[in-house]
Write a structure and sequence with these properties.
This protein is an alpha/beta fold. The protein has a single domain (13-180), classed as Aldolase class I (TIM Barrel, Alpha-Beta Barrel). The chain has helices at 62-70, 89-101, 114-120, 123-131, 162-168, 177-180; strands at residues 13-23, 31-36, 58-61, 77-81, 105-109, 134-137, 158-161. The longest helix has 13 residues, at 89-101. The chain is globular and about 35 Å long.
């Protein structure tokens, strides 16, 4: 697994492909979804292929992204998506720490696996993991696409409880109704 970053890590800014201030499809409840620019995975059937190129997007500071989240009084959660958020891990980790301190649920989507990030991730990627409540991991696999899944595109992807997974040193599924729809 390659977790190489395509540009120098910046702890103060993200190249953003898009921002949705009132998403209801990128996790439970009303959330802010931050779609970053750049993805090394290029999964066939990806719903955001325009975010693959590492050139482009709009640079936004961590301060500006935090202000955008704070500007939605109904928002209780934030989702980092892409592109690949772990390609801009330093800035997302900084943003995640700030949002967690203010009581937001922080989630991310990644084409990497939890195990791969633990074993071969950079220090910034591991720091990003530590800020997350929930991780939807694994590449989108078109042959395993399932429209009945909640907050996942293909059945190989997992919804993980990151604090429990980090404490256990292994991937543990999120077991609450909020993300999975089951108890």
């Amino acid at each position: 697994m390659s977790t190489a970053v395509r540009w120098p890590e910046r702890p103060d800014a993200v190249q953003v492909a898009g921002l949705v201030i009132d998403s209801i499809v990128d996790g439970p409840g009303i959330r802010v979804a931050i779609f970053c620019q750049g993805c090394p995975h290029h999964c066939p059937g990806c719903h955001n292929p325009e975010s693959w190129a590492f050139a482009g997007g709009t640079e936004m500071t961590v301060d500006a992204l935090e202000a955008a989240v704070m500007g939605n009084p109904l928002c209780r959660g934030v989702t980092f998506s892409g592109g690949e958020p772990f390609s801009q891990a330093a800035a997302f980790a900084a943003l995640g720490r700030r949002l967690k301190a203010k009581g937001y649920e922080v989630a991310a989507y990644t084409g990497y696996t939890f195990e791969g990030l633990l074993a071969a991730g950079t220090a910034a990627q591991k720091a990003l993991l530590e800020t997350l409540d929930v991780l939807v991991d694994g590449p989108f696999i078109q042959a395993r696409r399932n429209l009945d899944l909640r907050f996942r595109g293909s059945d190989n992807q997992r919804i993980l409880d990151v604090p429990r997974s980090l404490a256990a040193g292994r991937a543990l599924w999120y077991d609450g109704e909020r993300w999975t729809g089951t108890r």
